[in-house]
Prior knowledge:
CATH architecture: Orthogonal Bundle
Oligomer: single chain
Shape: elongated
Number of helices: 5
Strand content: 5-15%
Order of helices and strands: HHHHEEH
Radius of gyration: 19 Å
CATH superfamily: Winged helix-like DNA-binding domain superfamily/Winged helix DNA-binding domain
Strand order of the largest sheet: 1-2
Helix content: 55-70%
Amino acid sequence: MELNILITVLIMVALLMLAFFIANRMTRRAVSRVVEIFRKHQAIGIHQAKTIDELGLRPPNLLERVSRMRDYKQNALKILLKGEVIHLTEEGKLYITEEKIQELSRQGI
């Protein structure tokens, strides 16, 4: 009886760790994709800043969130904004600097 409980708890802990690992991995992948989107749309530097819509990073609506797999690009965008890798202009446009791109490249992202 006690062995069954112990095994169940260990399985639950392992599944929880796996979920965190997968979420972390997907977020790291999304960070790379967001940076690549900025490169693709040439949103490098304040004079070439783009809106969220121009970059294709508009958050999905409720129906899209329910019907699709989770998109980690929104989380990655928030992380990059909070970490001051991506900057926001007064007009609400987003851009990344060449220096930050090089810094991320050195970090392997």
